[in-house]
Amino acid sequence: MKVNENFGRMKPSYLFSEIAKRTAEFRERNPQADIIRLGIGDVTRPLCPAVVEAGKKATEEMGVAETFRGYAPDGGYPFIREAVSRYYGRRGVNIAPDEIFVSDGAKCDVGNILDIFASGITALVPDPVYPVYVDTNIMAGNEIVYIGGNAGNGFLPVPDETTPAADVIYICSPNNPTGAVYDAEQLKKWVDYARNCGGVILFDAAYEGFVQGDLPHSIFEIEGARECAIEFGSLSKTAGFTGTRCAYTVVPKELKSGDVSLNALWARRSATKFNGVSYIVQRMAEAALSDEGLKQIAENLAYYEENARIISAALDELGIEYTGGRNSPYIWLKCPNGMGSWEFFDLLLSKANVVGTPGAGFGVNGEGYFRLTAFGDRERTAEAAERIKKTLREEI
Ligand code: PLP
Question: Is 234 in the pocket of ligand 1 (CB under 6 A)?
């Protein structure tokens, strides 16, 4: 029996276990310490009432013979594909329902999409990065080329004439972990690059719900993207579905390799390996994207945005550089005094009793940076911000 030897090429994923270990050791030494976690990437606000109501109603339907449903249609029920299509339409983006594939998570789809590409292809991946892009390409035996995000480019790398050609190109905006958001001009450069080199942009829009103002929510707001991009959307962060699970992947009909349609390949792949999201969850997702649902969701997003503002304001007062904090639930700060990511982690834990995420866990360029998240409770976030200010005033 032969296993996939590529697994041996992956770095151990020790970021969150190391955080847990250091936090547990600290707690053992300091049982009275009141630790605040600003490291989590999971939401805390409950599902909105429209979603809960839809879930109850759909559950009732499943208990009655006349309205009971078995397997869902491939790609999702028409009602949810149409709801996602209308959601895009609100921003003037035309996506047909049969270009939308409903799934149980952007994470799965971002990984699974590699099924429709040859193995051994080249992936262009930003650094720092959401680790899933890296690990899934290693598992698939692909070559990874990195493009560096750094303070100089505001953690928003764009391709230039030196950027090598790639088959798949990962973009995450608003970005996890840096919170940085591309504008339309920068995304146009990516679209032009992809079309020139014949690569496909894999656009991760998991945090688009946080975008305000003129910044793009979707790669399909950019001219030419329908010929060169696939987009992953998710209700996880937008509507609090991290535990409920519903996402969607958009594969435009124009996207082709020669005369092979990637939409057709993804439809075939999904029908072969996936039996769909439950009817109840699809109804809940439909409700989240209704006018009423979107209004209610906006309140939750505003809650997180205010948390992000509170953390950002503390860093502004301290004169600490950061990206994110606006249009994003993440705040990505430069560790003061040239401290390393883990050194800063230990300082915040021991002096402020606040837990964040060391940037080094997201790639080489993350060393010397640190991620805080706005997904926590308001009072605890405000308390953490005060403690961070006090600690850093004493330490830097
Ligand atoms: N993409 C990014 C950049 C994320 O940070 C996350 C979750 O943290 C996901 C995708 C996963 O989304 P889902 O819950 O839909 O699987």
Answer: yes
